[in-house]
Amino acid sequence: MILKDIHASYGRYGNSNMYISTLDEVLEHQRSNGIVQSAVVNNLSAKADVRECNDQLLKESSNRSEIVPALSLFPPSFSAESYTKNELASIIDNTGNLFFKLFPKEHHILLTSWQFGWMIDMIEESNCSILVALDDIDLRDLAQIKAERPELRIIITDTTQWKNRILTQLIKTYDNIYIDTCNVIEYFGIELYCKEIGSEKILFGSNTPFKEPYDGIFTLMMADISNEEKENIAYRNFDRLAARRRF
Amino acid sequence: MNIRECYLNGIRPDDLKIVDAHAHIGHSAGCHIPLESTEEGIRRMESLGISAMCASHLTALGGDVEAGNKMLFELCDKYPGKVYGHVFYDPRCPEISIGDIEKYKNHPGFVGIKIHPRESFTYLSDDGYRPLWEYADANKLIVTSHTWETEPMNDPALFFDICNKYSNMIVILAHCGGTYLGYETCYRLVKEFPNVYLDLNGFIYCCQWIEQVVERINGVDRIVFGTDQFFNDPRISLGRVVLSTLSDDEKRRILYYNYASICDKFAV
Questions:
Q1: Per-position DSSP letters for A160-179, written without gaps between them
Q2: B229 in contact with A at a CB cutoff of 8 Å?
Q3: Interface pTM (ipTM) of the complex?
Q4: Element of type H or E holding B153
Q5: The pTM is what?
Q6: Does A18 touch chain B (CB under 8 A)?
Q7: I want to staple A120 with a disulfide (CB 3.0 to 4.6 A). Which of A115, A116, B14, B70 is the partner?
């Protein structure tokens, strides 16, 4: 089975005694587990200089087809720290496939139209996808922004079974909301979500290196769903969402 | 082929024994659990090669100890060899709980006692648990406790005092404290007390790979296999073990033999 991972990262994070952390270590483990391409975040961008971390990630991912960079974004609140319109357009135009990653808790920001202003217009217009962890956002904010921007693609990572009633209804209500599998721990959750929201809305995500990829791979392999559904989750949705328009 | 290669090639190793030391039966309103019946759950469990589950009943965790324990052992009777029971001990009603342990301890399905301090709104250090510690220690029983470092009532650090006083009972730390700090505390408990075992379910939040856990506690001997089904997908914990880079011998011990060495219901 071809696997593409929507949720990987590299770099040390806080005081955690991480088993692996460098980009090379992460990619080696991805390869050894059959993962051929990963959306990768620089973990330091949650804590340190976002631009510098993004630059490092772009440099390290250039000419490495197994990496699709997931760049961290500050909203345009302060011109000294955020990208300008031209800078963001240049990144979108000149980078191969691309995702964006938000850290609302770490960066003390909200996922709302007024917080991101023109930046969210550009992301929506370019069909880029935003990755954000479920516990980092208020789902009422998400419902609001989706009501305003039906085409905006948002991939919710690190889901929790304790919010599955809210999240499932949200995805049924609004288009272009997706989930990753890294924390789909509900009882036979892959089958449940395929039935309720459809395999087109689910992407394989491992959350490497914060955890091992073994459980997610095993669960998808053993899932009682069709081969087409498995392929959607394993890599087709990744390919579809990684592609986007240029300015 | 080794165990990992078997699974990657779609083959379930015939001779692989698996017992789930941490399971639940019953209904919970807290989140949606897509399960029609206990029969369906057992069928799914067996389809993964797990021969038996050691469960507590969610009605008991939810507050009705006697009713929950009674329903659980009725299921043990209905599915002998497939469903084993943890009597749930509620520290808010210690007499009833000890009475239930007395009632069921000779039942062929009895494997030990389950506690869930957060659900019972009682700190592990509370006097309400003292009758349990004394009883379990005197009778050398297995006590499985929900642990989660960010939930003050069942922070695994509270087991240092308990294990210092009671060394005959066997303690299984379910979820291994849940978080990174919880795992760190559990490593210390395992190193300090020979009667403490780890159930690694809940690893999503711990930043610790299974290979790393084994390195930290110098081997697999103190790890038992638990899935938290029917809350959690049993494939999550199973996949973590069978696709890991641990040796086949280490995997077999985690999946069955370590628990069989402390629970007389399973042949070593």
A1: -GGGHHHHHHHHHHSSSEEE
A2: yes
A3: 0.94
A4: none
A5: 0.95
A6: yes
A7: A116
